[in-house]
Amino acid sequence: MIILGIETSCDETSAAVLDGGTVKSNVISSQLVHARYGGVVPELASRAHQRMIIEVVDEALTKAGVTKNDLQSIAATQGPGLAGALLVGLCFGKAMAYGLQVPFVGINHMEGHLYSNFLTKEKPSYPFVSLIVSGGHSMLVHVKAPFEHRVLGQTRDDAAGEAFDKVAKMLGLGYPGGPVIDKLSVDGNPRAINFPRSYLNHDTFDFSFSGIKTAVLYYLKHQGLFDPDLGELSINQQHLADICASFQEAVVDVLVSKTLLAANELNVKVIALAGGVSANSSLRKRMKHETEKRHFKLFYPPLEYCMDNAAMIAYVGWMKLQRQIESGFDIPAVANLELT
Question: What is the model's pTM?
Answer without folding.
Answer: 0.94
